[in-house]
Amino acid sequence: MAIWASASLAAISEAETHLTASGARIVQTFNSVSGLKALVADNGKERRLFYASPDGKSLIVGTVFDAKGVNVTSADLARAGLVPAGAAAPAPNALPGAIRELPSALWDRATKLRWFEEGKGDNVMYVIFDPNCPYCRQLWSALRPAVQSGKVRVRWLPVAILADSSKGLAAALYASKAPAESMQQLANHMLSPVAPTRENSLATAYNLLLLRDVGFTSVPTILFRRAGKSLAMTGEPDQSQLASLIGR
Fold first, then answer.
1. Which of 33, 53, 80 represents a domain boundary (last residue)?
2. Which domain holds residue 21?
3. Which candidate in 13, 38, 176, 240 could, as Cys together with 182 as Cys, close a disulfide (CB 3.0–4.6 Å)?
4. Sheet containing 25-31: which strands, arranged edge to edge?
């Protein structure tokens, strides 16, 4: 990790001044889950992620971890549309992937995130989804009979990785007093985005960290339990997998 002190301009922080003075153009800024200000700089050949210290006087380059050892920078890279070397870009996925077993700690993390729920019963699943993902909307529609008959309880965890409007749509879902109705509006392309609050941005960032730690890069990703085991799969499930998920 490297830190540089830099000169000051009235309009921007000293850290941002260092980047622009070196010929880079700052194309995006946002508040990281870490509490630092994230800066995306374009030097004409590539875009890179930097952080500004809280006082704005220092520029930080490197990987940031939270108190639990979670790599926060991975989520910031995804949020900025930058993909670490060797990683696959997040994408919507129509094809169901292999089911993998998860450490119980990841399931426990999902239970503590900011989800919204529909359905009843003990058969609980978590769905990490992007509001702009067409296969996520198809999954929502496919789950209607099971949700309405009480065969499954679905807890939805929005992320914002596919389009700029995903942030505002996720914020609209979080702000809704009737998220099930808002999901119906989303499925019908009638939900209007709203300005994300810091709380909403943090929630979607933590959801994205879970997606990364589960080991998938596409949505929808489904977490569920069978025979005492925590499991996950990505992609839209086929009919037989869907039947297994809802216990038919």
1. 80
2. 14-80
3. 176
4. 2-5, 58-61, 47-52, 37-42, 25-31
